[in-house]
């Protein structure tokens, strides 16, 4: 089963991009972030025509996450984190698909740092840690995949000094991400790609063409799922399309 994550950066604005990618790549399960659309504007019909059932948790103009599946209806298990520090922001959606619990997440950006938005980022990560531990305690096969808005190490960024004042590269955020992984999760992309492939390139200064990117989209596998990891990677091609997202899709292949 191929599980992918794609920060689409506006699902209706870039619906043609999404549908083209779904046709060319044909992932079995897809987690989307930054829908930037309320629930009633989610393009369910177009996605069904592409062969996917869908769940979504939308929000007008900002945030929003969705789970698509072409291998059976995703069965929703959670909408939002327990005790979310701001439940008005649509950032987490969880569903069971083919015996795997799929958690789709869009972690807060946190800029400017320091400040209230950064405090919210850290609080949200604390709630994610607590829920992630609950999943581990249940021993269910689980994947937490999406845009984490955290650059874990110097190897995950082109010219680290240029991101030193950014919340994505802040020591507190990096420490919390490391703590999350140390619960027992496997960083699937890194496990299969020790060269730390980038997943995001800013629109400015031909960043993609120069490969001046960062790695902020991650897929974490629970101990019961990690042994089934066959491959993982970044699909760079869609990042080069016209009027595309600034993220590239990331994917993991599981032997279920």
Automatic annotation (TrEMBL):
InterPro entries: AP_endonuc_1, AP_endonuclease_F1_BS, Endo/exonu/phosph_ase_sf, Endo/exonuclease/phosphatase, ExoIII-like
Family: Belongs to the DNA repair enzymes AP/ExoA family.
Biological processes, Gene Ontology terms: DNA repair
CDD domains per UniProt: ExoIII-like_AP-endo
EC number, as in UniProt: 3.1.11.2
Keywords: Hydrolase, Magnesium, Manganese, Metal-binding
Active site: 106, 147, 247
Cofactor section: Mg(2+); Mn(2+)
Site entry (Interaction with DNA substrate), positions: 247
Residues engaged in binding Mg(2+): 7, 34, 147, 149, 246-247
Species this chain originates from: Sphingomonas piscis
Protein name: Exodeoxyribonuclease III
Annotated site location: Important for catalytic activity: 217
Database matches in SUPFAM superfamilies: DNase I-like
